[in-house]
Amino acid sequence: LGGWCPILQFHSGYQTSDLAPVVRRLHSLLLAPPDDKLRAVRNKYSHKIFFEVASLPLVNVDILEKALSSQ
To answer: Where in the sequence is the domain holding 44, given as residue range(s)?
Structure first.
């Protein structure tokens, strides 16, 4: 979690190690196949105004684990 600096840690009260389980869970949810119930959300965040974040590729699990374990 390269962007998690001491200032963020201070103001949020969370250390990188506190965030690791949440990051892993969010990643696993994003790996699941798209759900028709959330199609509107996916479409919304596929627009340019939202920087097309729904279209961004996910980080590889190995890279994610390496980043989380290096903290």
So the answer is: 6-69
Q: 7: buried, middle or exposed (CB in 10 Å: 19+, 13-18, 0-12)?
A: exposed
**How many separate domains does the chain show?**
1
In angstroms, the CA 48 to CA 53 distance is: 9
pLDDT digits (tens, 9 = 90+) for 46-59: 999 999 999 999 99
pTM, rounded to two decimals: 0.74
CA dihedral 17, 71, 9, 26 (to 10 degrees): -50
What residue type is assigned to position 8 of the chain?
L
Question: Please, are residues 31 and 46 in contact by the beta-carbon 8 Å criterion?
Answer: no
